[in-house]
Amino acid sequence: MYKALKIELKLTNEQKIKVCQTIGTERFIYNEYIKYNQEQYELGNKFVSANDFSKYINNVYLPNNPDKKWIKDVSSKSVKQAMIYGEKAFKKFFKGLSAFPVFKKKGKNELGAYFVKNNKTDFEFYRHKIKIPTLKFVRVKEYGYIPKNAIIKSGTITKIADRYFLSLIMEVEDTVKAANTSSEGLGVDLGIKDTAICSNGKVFKNINKTKKVKKLKKKLKREQRKMSRSVEYSKSKKIKLKECKNFNKKKLKVQKLFYRLNCIRDDYNNKIVDEITRAKLKYITIENLKVSNMMKNKHLSKAIQEQNFYAIRTKLINKCKERNIELRLVDTFYPSSKTCSCCGEIKKDLKLNDRIYKCCNCGLEIDRDYNASINLEKAKIYKVIA
Questions:
Q1: What is the pLDDT of residues 67-86, one digit of tens each?
Q2: DSSP secondary structure, 235-281, as one string
Q3: Cα 295 from chain centroid?
Q4: Boundaries of every domain in the chain
Q5: Are 338 and 302 in contact (CB under 8 A)?
């Protein structure tokens, strides 16, 4: 069984230069791969695979461009992986799963520095350090996260807000799952007012409404204004942003605040998922939310974006598989909010601002979201996704 793990590293200045060099080379190769395929398409030729492009780089491109010899300064496996990422992006586009691959920009949606295990001694780890190919031993910021019996296959170093993280793919022993004898189920309604409302009465409040997050968002806006003033100044004086005093410092402050906010939200989502799946349940039912359609509402789009519903759903899938719980997905058009959880009457004229559900048939008065979670638990038509 394969598992992934992410840990923070303490790199020396030499190691930082090497990682940044690898990331930059991978970005260049990825962009060249997309560009080359576009050119071949315009000429009426077939799609070029990662293997064919690798031969083109070694036999044609590098001999004709001696100024690009710095490509050979980084690991050949890292360069090849950038081509594989490009090929995967094209295949997803051909299948209609994603948009046409876009060029990578420095500082935005960067590729990570990929390192693969070549020798037996690669990815050797101790309590406080790990051996990475081409970087040698690297200090780990937090100790004891890597399992002792794990076999590490590969690792990717990413740079986020001037901090370096190592994502490892490990092979671990399969754990025997205990048989699920429970007959109880749970309906979970995801929302904006409260992040998650469960059919057992448990409510998880919206973290974005807390004082801590509001204070950080206010600070972020202030730092963004400072950054935008530097941009306006550079345009008015017709000078490059690099020459603007302290622009990179302002940019780093904004990146750190963004990262901190994302970490707070991600940690809260992890706690929600852990608490929901910790109970002995047979199944959990959620609704298939079309977030792209929900985002069209300009008044709620930012609040929906901050909730990160897709991340919660992904975490639920992984935890349910781990804890042997069935995860059910109900259709988007299932009227969970409009249906009475007591008598089954559908109230078609229910508006979005009606927070209390009042049934005209049986006289039931109940919170709208709690009513939806009960209906999700009772749903008969569903799709099993975990």
A1: 999 999 999 999 999 999 99
A2: HHHT--GGGSTTHHHHHHHHHHHHHHHHHHHHHHHHHHHHHHHHS--
A3: 18
A4: 1-175, 185-204+277-384, 208-265
A5: no
